[in-house]
Every structure is written in structure tokens, then in C-alpha cells.
Amino acid sequence: MTKKILTLATRDSALALWQTKHVAAAIEARTDYRTQLLPMTTEGDRRLEVTLSKLGGKGLFLKELEQAMLAGEADIAVHSMKDVPADMPDDFLICAVLERADASDAFVSNHYQSLDDLPDGAVVGTSSLRRQAQLLSLRPDLQVKPLRGNVNSRLQKLDDGQYAAIILASAGLIRLGFEDRIASRLTAPQWLPAVSQGAIGVECLANNSQLAEELSVLSHADTHLCIRAERALNLTLEGSCSVAIGAYAEALSDHSIHLKAAVFSPDGEQVLNAQQQGYDPESLGRVVAEDLLSQGAKEILALSEQA
Q: Which 3-state string (H, E, C) describes 223-242?
């Protein structure tokens, strides 16, 4: 019997293609489907001269892929979960979250081994408000300058001497074979990653319950629980890439989840922290978010929106 072919929409970047091929291999190994890829260039990829916060957020990496699904050109889309807005349109759902890779941020430099090693006033590249805020919280003397583009072009800008160091996601570097470029890792609990960083998600149409059920076998149970907790936190905080929120959830041996989160002002001078342990991921995310809101997170997040 001929196997049905699933079309996977993906951004047309080296990292996105790696992730989508990884998902395609898992689908072919664990289901009766064959796969084909539909690479696409999104608005977020085209407009590299503008920071994501000014463009309107990371949802710009999803729009074209979701339109392809609605038009019947693709069956599913593959995303870095940190790019998926917490408040998804009703037409779509995340039907699988694969096992999380390294969730840390990477300190990448050709001359320095760690953040502490940087000289006063060193230029560090990132276009993430969360990374910027954490950098300035730890090292207010640094100059943080914008850095966008794919992983290769960002590394090239570092090699060209435009920055003393850059901050990238460890998972992306590892997936593309650049693990040796990581001078050191910035890790929880001292440094918090983006919500859902390191996890790959599969998005499908909400009305295709059969496909969603068939693809749920790809999900890693503990990762999915942790991602649900982090996304519930982000949803309650009404977070986007325009604000500086860090979060990291871990599944513990008693089947509970520990969630730590922080909200930062853009200049890093104000930092709010909260953490909690619980069993229901959505409730846990809301409880930690409400703790942050009770400390004044709404006012700090409003500052980020204006930055």
C-alpha cells in the first residue's frame, strides 16, 4: 500500500531545515507517513535590518507557514517553540513537542572564555531584549548592539571583529555542527533562557484531530509538560519578544515540575524573580506569573514595550 505523504512547511534557513528534517525522520520512523518539505521565506527572515520587537514579534516567522496550511499546501509546520507566540490562533495547535535539546544560551567569542572575562565597555551582539537585559544586569558596563541574521552570518560578523562576543542559543549551534564555537554556556538558574528554548514543535490545523493524534507519538512527555508550564506563564504575562522574560521548567523525579522565571527591565536594572513547584503545568505557569505580577511585572513589561 502506498504511504500517504505529509508536507512539512518550514522556514528556508539552515537551522529550520535541520529541525524539519529531524522531525521528518521521526515521522517516517514512528508513523505510516512519508514526508516532503516545503521551505518558505517568512517576513521575519526578509526584514533583517529591523529588530524583531519593532517588527511585531516572532510570530512573523510563523505567518506564511500557517497560511500554507490553511491553503492546503502543507499539512504541518515545524518550529522552534521559542518562536511560537503563547496566544495561538484558534485555527492551529501544537500537536507534538520533541525532546528538548540544550536550553542554554551560548557565550561565543574568539578571544574570551566567559562573560566575566570581557573587558569594560566590550561590544556584545544580540537582538534579544531578554539577553540584552540579562547582560546589562550582570555587566552594566557592556555595549549591547543589535545582531540579526542566520547562525552563519552572525558568526561571520563576530569573526569580522564587529563584536567582542555574541550570544546565541546553544541548541542551534549544536544542531548545525558549531558546538566548538561555544566558549561557555549561560545556564539556569543564574541565567534564564527564552520560554521554550531548545524545543522543536509540530503545528497542525486544530480541526485535523486524527493527524494530531497520530503525530502525538513524537512528543516527549516531560518536555511537553515543561513547555506547557513555560507557555502558560508567558500567556499570563502577555509576553512577546518585545519584552524581557526568561523561564526554565524542569521535570522532577516525583513527576512534579519546577518552574523558575524572571522579568527584566531593558536596561537590566530591575529584575523580578519567582519560582514554584507543582504538578499541573498550566496552573504552575499561572501561579509563577501571578507572583511576578504581584511584584510589579506589569510596569516593567510596559517599559520593555516602549524600548
A: HHHHHHHHHHHHHHCCCCCC
Residue 2 has pLDDT above 90, yes or no: no
Q: Which of 45, 75, 83, 102 is catalytic?
A: 83
pLDDT in tens, 133-169: 999 999 999 999 999 888 999 999 999 999 999 999 9
Host H or E run for residue 21: helix 14-30
Domain 105-186 identical in fold to domain 221-307 = no
Among 154, 175, 125, smallest CA distance to 14 is for 175
83 flagged as catalytic:
yes
pTM as predicted: 0.91
What's the CA gap between 189 and 268, in Å, rounded?
A: 16
Integer CA distances (angstroms), 156 to 121, 122, 148, 165, in order: 21, 18, 12, 12
- Tell which CATH classification among 1.25.40.280, 3.40.50.150, 3.90.1150.10, 3.40.190.10 matches the domain 105-186: 3.40.190.10
